[in-house]
Specification:
Blueprint (H helix, E strand, L loop, with lengths): L2 H23 L7 H8 L3 H4 L6 H23 L7 H17 L1 H8 L9 H9 L1 H16 L4 H25 L5 H22 L2
Length: about 200
């Protein structure tokens, strides 16, 4: 990598970090070229040297947030045995990340994709995230318990809908009323889906 490429990578990093900080703090609605540039410490004209527009930056931040989330999850589930137990642990850690960063949850699940950019790629990136996080463990279950692919597809879809729905109600309507009740409800719902794997091996 030559000096020009290093400089370009560094500058993109500054603007992406500034965008991520604003998204975590104030959310998408307050985001514009000028406050991103101000947060990064550069002029808004400089931003256009590296990005097409704000939507491109936000799209890249979605991917970056997912990498950040995946790194946190990896740390939290370290040592959990593969298979059903790890699927449960990953799913709980995935939900905990969004509780920790409500603005990121809103970006992923509430904001209109037209405000983010690259609609279909963004939708695919978000919708397949939990599937990608748990892919190795679902594959482990499929082989160990001789599961049908359709059974796994259904279970993955249920996890996606349950997690998004529970997060939506908890973070926007405070239902359940406390995090401990929310955590308990998560356990019940995740167990109901994943424990069917244990039954299937009998």
């Amino acid at each position: 990598m030559n000096n020009k490429e290093i400089q370009e990578q560094r500058m993109k990093g500054y603007f992406m970090q500034a965008t991520k900080e604003l998204l975590k703090g104030e959310g998408l609605k307050s985001l514009n070229v000028r406050n991103i540039a101000q947060q990064a410490g550069y002029s808004f004209a400089t931003l256009y040297n590296y990005f097409k527009d704000v939507k491109e930056l936000v799209f890249l931040c979605v991917d970056d947030f997912q990498q950040e989330c995946a790194a946190e999850i990896t740390q939290k589930v370290n040592g959990v045995p593969g298979g059903p137990a790890k699927i449960k642990a990953i799913t709980k850690a995935y939900m905990a990340y969004f509780v920790q960063y409500p603005s990121v949850f809103n970006l992923f699940f509430i904001e209109k994709l037209g405000d983010i950019g690259q609609k279909q790629p963004t939708a695919n990136l978000i919708f397949t995230f939990l599937d990608r996080l748990t892919a190795d463990d679902w594959d482990y279950c499929r082989k160990k318990y001789n599961l049908q692919e359709n059974d796994i597809t259904v279970a993955k879809a249920e996890l996606n809908y349950i997690t998004a729905g529970m997060l939506l109600f908890y973070m926007n309507r405070i239902q359940p009323a406390s995090y401990s009740d929310f955590s308990e409800a998560i356990d019940i719902q995740i167990n109901a889906i994943v424990d069917r794997i244990e039954i299937s091996k009998a």
